[in-house]
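Exam revision sheet. Question 4 asks you to relate a sequence to its structure. Input first:
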Amino acid sequence: MSPRPLAILGTGLVTPVGLSAPAACAAIRAKVASPMESRFLDSAGEVIMTCPVPLAEPREMPARLARMAAMAIEECLDEVPPADGEGLPVLVCVAEEGRPGRAGGLDACLLADIEAELGGRFSSASALISLGRTGVASALTRARDLVYEAGVPRVLIAAADSLLGEQQLAALDRAGRLLTPGNSDGFLPGEAAGAILVGAPAAPGTAAQLVVNGIGIAQEEATLESGLPLRADGLLRAIRAALVEAGCGVHELDFRIADLSGERYYFKEAALAVVRVLRQSKDEFDLWHAAECTGEVGAAAALVALAVADAACRNGYAPGPGVLVHLSNDDGRRAALVLGYGD
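Answer key, structure tokens:
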């Protein structure tokens, strides 16, 4: 086990298939999907299908992201006494800078907008992390420093992202990345927000918890658009680093959750990485991917994965207590998390 493990103490989700963690995780377990016709057409004149969050008050970006994030945070802190929730460090993960169609104004106003939605103030240690799907891994690394070096008892990590803006959809369509009747090698764009509360694990013998035991981050040179042959070197390095921190082998883990959303490149990468890291035979190593229900949700994908893992372990339908989560950015950044459930 890592010398600096982080326990997941609470979760919150806002997704196209559920506006709370229990509802969303139940829908994902049942493989409920909710694609809807958007008001946009692709370059072939076909209606673009999307997976929107059913908010009571439709809003434009980035106000929509702030509202979704605030809803997830409120759920995550629902059982935390108000006094304990005041002044928490909050690390908010959003789309990477330079992503085509990224909502404007995120870096300047999103933290303040979420504070306004919640009616409170975050700790001065709070920050916005603009690293896309791998951002939560960096947030967990920063949370470990706050807990084990700065003496902060708990840290809240949130994420919010949407691929449903007009400019975003147009950029994805031009790149041929949308799932359409004429393109099977694409994904359904979606949106979501999530939150987790993390801190040092409870003493042995208390209630079981899902614990982050290993974190690995690396860079892949053979990105989606590089034209280089894919060997999954970056993801392999990230997984190996997370396994070393956790002090275990991948054969000791029971299932995987990934941010895969439909593109062949990322499925091939996931398969190559596991084949190269697995040194002992395994009869089964299930691969779960929530995007088949929520659509591609960008920076929120990691928190969806962590909430799904937590629900599966707590409710007894996980294949076992050891979980590998792996994440891949279009810009080549890769991340992996090794989780363990127990008391």
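Marking note for examiners. The first helix runs from residue 21 to 29.
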